Amino acid sequence: MNPRKVGKREVDYLRKQVYVKSDVYNRWRLSIFGTFLKWCGNNIIETMRIGWPNDARVNANWLEPDEAMTVKNTAEDIERVIVTLELDLCMRRIEVLRLRPQDFKGDRVNVLGKGRMGGKWRTVKYRPDTKEIIGEWLLKRERMIEAAKVIDPKIKVPEAFLIHQRGGRLVAYQKSGIDKILTKLRKRVEILYERKLSFSNHTLRRSGGRILWLAGVKIETVGAILGHEDTRTTIKYLGINLDDQDEAMHLASAYEKSLMLPQKVERGLSQRESGPKEIWALLSVWLSPVLYRRRYIPTCACTLRSAPSRSPFPRGPRRCSRASASRSDDLASA
């Protein structure tokens, strides 16, 4: 079949009939197939935007902060360098093996991560004690090279940052060599804790990212140090559990209590004793006389003379009491 003619029907057939294992496996196989189709000029898998279940990584493990500090304090010599790179600077094992002496500049290191076309570069800043540890290893590396050149002036020096001497040659560390170093370190740490403590290169990397997050570093910054393009990947590395959620709830409650809210003001003494009528009486003094005259219209001269200049509660027209009394007398005499 022509790869350029693969459509949604063919992709759905692969998902439901061919790739019938776990979601992680199916996603991996479909990703490979999608890369091939994209190379052929077909972006059907990208346009479908297939939704996959969230990978919670239940089998991933992290070191607790006290365990990570114990590992760091127990490490010696080259163990200390590896722990610093993987735990403090959150590097992958392959990134550690790719390091070269010229990648360390001042207070930062240029890291070649994984990715297409040879990987992607990123820059990671040192911790306060990182420069001393890296400087000690660079000095030891130079002494190792000088000692090897005394025996063989034409010896070939590897470009790698981590090297060792084997059989009269200078060779770079490989994955198996790094793993053996961490195995020896893990056994010494297990003796201190008197229990089994399992961790690998990637465990140190995840633990470093989690410690940064627990220290209050923004998740975007943690993702940049880890080399993640998506913060969702960083969240998986953090290993947020129920204890972290409980702490988050307490922090949210404390923050809400610290907010300054407007308080309800109790009525003053003058208001409680005099009541609203006196308050309105005081406010009415500020009213314009025009409004008063418009609403209060006296009906006779006597009412006009007895009317106050400003009434707190102006009402409509009222009849004079004297005029009403004289009218009643006239009716009675008649």
Strands ordered across the widest β-sheet = 1-2-3
CATH class annotation of the largest domain:
Mainly Alpha
- Return the CATH architecture of the largest domain: Orthogonal Bundle
Q: How many strands in all? A: 5
CATH superfamily of the largest domain: Intergrase catalytic core
Q: Name the structural class.
A: mainly alpha
Largest sheet: 3 strands, antiparallel
In short:
With 334 residues, the protein is mainly α. It has helices at 8-18, 23-39, 44-48, 65-74, 78-88, 93-98, 130-151, 175-193, 201-214, 219-226, 231-238, 242-258, 269-274, 276-284, 289-295, 301-306, 321-333, and strands at 104-105, 108-112, 121-125, 163-166, 169-172. The strands form 2 sheets. It has a 3-stranded antiparallel beta sheet.
What does this structure look like?
The chain folds into 3 domains: 3-48, no CATH class; 65-241, Orthogonal Bundle (hpI Integrase, Chain A); 287-317, no CATH class. A 3-stranded antiparallel β-sheet has the order 1-2-3. Mean pLDDT is 79; it is low at 292-299 and 309-318. β4 (163-166) and β5 (169-172) form a beta hairpin. It has 334 residues and is mainly α. The radius of gyration is 42 Å and the shape is globular. The chain has 17 helices and 5 strands.
Q: How do the strands and helices of this protein lay out in sequence?
A:
Elements: H1 8-18, H2 23-39, H3 44-48, H4 65-74, H5 78-88, H6 93-98, E1 104-105, E2 108-112, E3 121-125, H7 130-151, E4 163-166, E5 169-172, H8 175-193, H9 201-214, H10 219-226, H11 231-238, H12 242-258, H13 269-274, H14 276-284, H15 289-295, H16 301-306, H17 321-333
Antiparallel strand pairs: 1-2, 2-3, 4-5
Helix pairs in contact: 4-5, 5-7, 5-9, 9-10, 10-11
